[in-house]
Amino acid sequence: MAEGRFDPHQLLKVFAIMSQQGERTAAGYALLGLEALSSEDGYTLEFNDQHVRLQLLFHNKYHVDF
């Protein structure tokens, strides 16, 4: 992964692992202090913890709040 960029394929793999091994929550999945959510249409994934929120958007765009 290039510095300052996110590989969307890696994020999709992380989401798959969290959905398989994580604990189901009201909003999504939780694993090791990280929460993963998916929009109803599946076009947006969101990962967050206490300090950071990363959204993987349509066309592999992303948005990070910290």
Structure in words:
With 66 residues, this protein is α+β, with helices and mostly antiparallel strands. The longest helix is centred in the N-terminal third of the chain and has 14 residues, at 8-21. The protein has one domain (8-65). The chain has one helix at 8-21, and strands at 23-24, 29-31, 34-38, 45-48, 53-56, 62-65. It starts with 7 loop residues before the first helix and ends with a strand. 21% of the residues lie in helices and 33% in strands.
Short description:
The protein has 66 residues and is of the alpha+beta class.
Order of H and E elements? HEEEEEE
Major β-sheet profile: 6 strands, antiparallel
Q: How many E strands?
A: 6
Helix content: 10-25%
| Low-confidence sequence ranges | none
Distance, first to last CA? 20 Å
Question: What is the topology?
Answer:
Blueprint: H1 8-21, E1 23-24, E2 29-31, E3 34-38, E4 45-48, E5 53-56, E6 62-65
Antiparallel strand pairs: 1-2, 2-3, 3-4, 4-5, 5-6
Essential attributes:
single chain, 66 residues, alpha+beta, globular
